[in-house]
């Protein structure tokens, strides 16, 4: 069986903008990735105080994990985005969206944004963390 990812946006739900309501997968291998934060390979926080720069580093880290497993970012079927300040995320949504499209193109998996009271790496200046899973060929 070959791998297939089908994104679902039923017309009876609100229009999905920048995400999909559901992702159905058939075949393939599942890759679950841990929360990725804005740290480089040396463990240094990238873009302290800059949510957009941190999102870019998170996307780079996600790309590294998925690529190492033999896939690409178009294989991602679910993302959960945790931020310390949901209002700041919304204020920077346009710039974050531009970074997102640089990495994911027009692929919009099921996504959830969660305003979090704390993140494990917040003490190091991390403002955002993203986890999820991919269905690989």
Structure write-up:
Helix content is 26%, strand content 30%. It is of the alpha+beta class and 137 residues long. Helix 1 (51-68) runs parallel beside helix 3. The model has no long low-confidence stretch (mean pLDDT 96). Strands 3-6-4-5 form a 4-stranded mixed β-sheet. It has a single domain, classed as 60s Ribosomal Protein L30, Chain: A (2-Layer Sandwich), CATH 3.30.1330.40.
How large is the radius of gyration?
Answer: 15 Å
SS strand fraction: 25-35%
Find the CATH topology: 60s Ribosomal Protein L30, Chain: A
Distance between the termini: 10 Å
Largest sheet: 4 strands, mixed
Counting DSSP H or I runs of 4 or more residues, the number of helices is: 3
Number of strands: 6
The CATH architecture comes to: 2-Layer Sandwich
Q: Quick summary of this structure?
A:
By secondary structure, the protein is an alpha+beta fold. It has helices at 51-68, 86-91, 93-104, and strands at 4-8, 22-26, 29-36, 76-83, 110-115, 128-136.
Features:
3 helices, 60s Ribosomal Protein L30, Chain: A, four-stranded mixed β-sheet, 137 residues, alpha+beta, 6 strands, two-stranded antiparallel ribbon
């Amino acid at each position: 069986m070959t791998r297939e990812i089908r994104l679902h946006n039923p017309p009876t739900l609100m229009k999905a903008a920048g995400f999909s309501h559901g992702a159905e997968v058939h075949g393939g291998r599942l890759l679950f990735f841990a929360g990725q934060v804005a740290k480089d390979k040396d463990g240094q926080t990238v873009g302290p105080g800059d949510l957009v720069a941190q999102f870019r580093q998170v996307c780079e880290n996600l790309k590294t994990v998925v690529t190492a497993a033999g896939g690409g970012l178009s294989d991602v079927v679910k993302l959960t985005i945790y931020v310390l300040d949901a209002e700041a995320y919304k204020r920077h949504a346009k710039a974050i969206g531009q970074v997102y499209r640089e990495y994911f193109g027009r692929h919009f998996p099921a996504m959830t944004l969660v305003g979090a009271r704390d993140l494990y790496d917040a003490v190091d200046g991390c403002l955002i963390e993203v986890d999820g899973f991919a269905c690989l060929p």
